[in-house]
Amino acid sequence: MKNSEYRLLRRRLVLFFMILTVLVLGLIGFTIGIINYYAELYSSQGLLSNTDFLLFYRNHALECNVFMFVFALMLLLILFLSIFFHNMNVILQTFQGEERRTPISFYIFPQFRKAQEKVNEMLSKRNASQMLAIEENEHKNELLMYLAHDLKTPLTSMIGYINHILDHKVDEEQQQNAIRIAYEKALRLDELIDEFSEILRYDDKVSQLNLSKIDINAMLHQQLTGFYPLIEKRNIQLDVDLPTDFYVIGDFDKLLRVFDNLMRNAINYSNEHSTIAIYGTQKKSSILLHYSNEAEQIDADSVAHLFDKFYRASTARTTTSGGAGLGLAIAKEIIELHHGHIHAAMEKQHIVFTIELPLTQEVFL
């Protein structure tokens, strides 16, 4: 509860207690007046006997009045505390997940109702987070199962070729070919082990930014140089169109990781003999960066889950491409840490990833 809401609740509680006190004391005073009137009336007429309460009251008026006032105040305090602790108990039971009807007192003290609503909202978020964690764990276990199976395939091939070489059942040309194939299988095995490591060591430690001014144009051109061997291997063309003056304030290493993940994703899932287009536009307070590549058609549901941890679209899960399904999830975390946005969309035969980054992070520091 915010300080302003706490102060308002305190004022409401004090005002409510004061109003109740005035009403109760007024009622007690009115009652005492009636009793005193009839005690005097019947006494003057000689109608009171020693066993009558009115005679006892007339002889002990001060003590009776003090007793009634104290008794009324005690009942009032008990009532007030009962209402307060009942409200707190309702909020506690709500926090424990029990269904409770909203008591009438919550409408007198709306701060309690707001607290209950916030508790319900927090519980909803917690439940959603738990469901997401369960789904992520299922994805993770499924991927581990796939990777465990995939690990056996190149390992079996390597053992087979190496056994042939050791048994001297191949000539020199076949031996060289076997060594080459075993080497390729070893490389694939290394990639799969890296994927295992990526899954097992993954956590949410993308939490801090080391800010500096970044020339996105220069960063991307320098980065893309390292991808040309992979691009040429798959007969893919690269089309880059970025503004000359294309700067943001951000974390260089983390943004480089984002662009690296997006580029690897584009290469892995692009159709051969297609084009990967990277283009950017400048807005008043942000930049837009688009990665577009021709790929197999992906349904809307799969596109919506592309940024989920440990998720890979079923059509893209193969033994030769795709990682542990963390690249895009990490990219999203980093972009959101920069107070930006990233989303994907299918546009005809192309999948387009769009990033929006604010020009500066100063307003968020």
Automatic annotation (TrEMBL):
Enzyme class comes to: transferase
Where does this one sit in the cell? Membrane
Name a single GO cellular component.
Answer: plasma membrane
The record's listing under Pfam families reads:
HATPase_c, HisKA
Question: Which terms in the Gene Ontology molecular function aspect does this entry carry?
Answer: ATP binding; phosphoprotein phosphatase activity; phosphorelay sensor kinase activity
Q: Which InterPro entries does this chain map to?
A: BphY/WalK/GraS-like, HATPase_C_sf, HATPase_dom, His_kinase_dom, HisK_dim/P_dom, HisK_dim/P_sf, Sig_transdc_His_kin-like_C
Protein's name according to its UniProt entry:
histidine kinase
